[in-house]
Amino acid sequence: MAAEQYYIKDAILKSAIHHESFEKLWETKWKAPCSLGIYPFMFGSIKDFEPVAQAIIKKGLKEPYNWDEYAEMFFPKAEELSRIAEQAEQAGEREKASEYYLRSSAVYRIARFPAPRSEKQKYAWRVGTETFYKGATLLEYPIVEARIPHTHRLQGTAEGDSIPANLLVPSSASASHPCPLVLIFTGLDGYRTELAVWQRGWLDKGVATIVVEIPGTGDSPALASDPLSPDRQWSSLLDWIGTIAAIDSAKVVVWGFSTGGYYALRAAHTHAYRLLGCVSLGGGAHHMFDRAWLENVNKLEYPFDLADTLAHKFGYPAGELEAFIREGQDKFSLLRDGTLEKPCCKVLLVNGTDDEIFPVEDLFVALEHGRPKLARLVKGKKHMGEPESFVVILKWIHGLLGLDGDVLHQLKLLPSQIKY
After folding, report:
1. What φ, ψ does residue 146 adopt, rounded to 5°?
2. What does R_g of the chain's alpha carbons equal in angstroms?
3. N or C: which end of the chain has fewer CB within 10 A?
4. pLDDT, tens digit, 9 for 90 and up, residues 395-414
5. 1 pLDDT above the threshold of 70
6. pTM above the 0.85 mark?
7. Is 269 considered catalytic here?
8. Is 337 a catalytic residue?
9. Given this model, what pLDDT does residue 110 score?
């Protein structure tokens, strides 16, 4: 039985209350983080989301969602915030304009959450991204979009020719004094427009950041269904980083969040000699593709249909969940394809013991194969073991890069800073 296979035991058979309706989702899972301005409401404000949430609740939306109907509920508020931002920008009020653009992008984000699968969700992603950069470029330390040539793309396929990424480099960095780089791999639903919240904190430490999306998410050009596509994407990205004189290409640390942790663990082996270290936070490796796991996760910790969202991310069209469950492990397991037996750079694996998104057993799979790795489990915490896990990871990266070890400043910058 599934309950006997995993650390979480019979929790895998219990349905979380937030799957009953959007009302339960908002009241039991989303309202509290929204009020704090943390994941998945980065750059957002509770006063923007509360009226939208109440309208959705009044309409009685619940699983299975019509994603166009769901997304459309957020558009009036997102458009209203964008208009205020435009007016502020025209009046020369940069700070106010930046805040309102970013708040608008946060509303568009939840409209396309967890993944842009319907037409209106795709629209929300496109417009929300444009709105994000309008706000990000008006910040005190502007975050710009880099379009990195995908020189290793697979010719003759649908693989894109550029890799969009957020870039922020300290003004003090130069060819004579290059800075380290933290390369952030985003997750299943948190893209470069969200994990940008980490960039200012690293800037204050004299560290450059690049935030880039993993295959099958956001604007990643990689073929979602090709297990080798991430290797090509990272090769193109690292080649380009090597041309930036202000960045020390010998001091590149990868931090992968959630599904990005799976890709960080892979990159640690496929690009071992090009990376100083890799962090897999809440990442899977092998058991994340178990049939017994995937057949149950749609009703667990994740706010929506996790198995279907993963199938979409790995290149399986709507309605082909069974094909993904049947084929996923053979195609994408880092154990079955031999990745974990290859040499690797320094690796830190971190997760909560009670993770209901990716089984904690995958952390042990990674430890049991290949070179020795470091690991930390956060007892009694669910996916990614946050917020305790952030302290562990930040201190580890500080140690690798010879930084000051003061991580609280970085953590304080994560929640939304709403002034207007």
Report:
1. -100, 135
2. 20
3. N
4. 999 999 999 999 999 999 99
5. no
6. yes
7. no
8. no
9. 98
Three-state SS for 205-228 is CCCEEEEECCCCCCCCCCCCCCCC
| Residue 287 bears catalytic tag | no
Q: Mean of the per-residue pLDDT values for the chain?
A: 97
Which residues have C-beta within 8 Å of that of residue 81, sequence separation ≥ 6?
A: 48, 100, 101, 103, 104, 107
Instruction: Kindly give, in sequence order, each residue whose CB lies less than 8 Å from that of residue 385, ignoring residues fewer than 6 positions away.
Output: 282, 350, 351, 352, 353, 355, 376, 377, 378
Its CATH class, for the domain covering 143-420, is alpha beta
**What does residue 93 show for φ and ψ, rounded to 5 degrees?**
-95, 80
Q: Predicted confidence band at 251 (pLDDT cuts at 50, 70, 90)?
A: very high
Structure tokens at 395: 């201190």
**CATH hierarchy code of domain 6-140:** 1.20.1440
Looking at 98, 362, 383, 389, which residue is catalytic?
383
Candidates 48, 231, 290, 355; catalytic one: 355
Is residue 177 pLDDT above 80, yes or no?
yes
Domain boundary assignment for the chain: 6-140, 143-420
Q: Which residues, 6 or more positions from 1, have their beta carbon under 8 angstroms from its beta carbon?
A: none
Name the one residue in this structure whose structure tokens are 């669910």: 382
Structure tokens at 263: 């890709």
- Distance, in Å, from the CA atom of 17 to the CA atom of 5, rounded to the nearest integer, reads 23
Fill in the amino acid letter for 195. L
Across 125-139, average pLDDT: 98
For residues 358-366, give the mean pLDDT: 97
Q: How far apart are CA 193 and CA 407, in angstroms?
A: 22
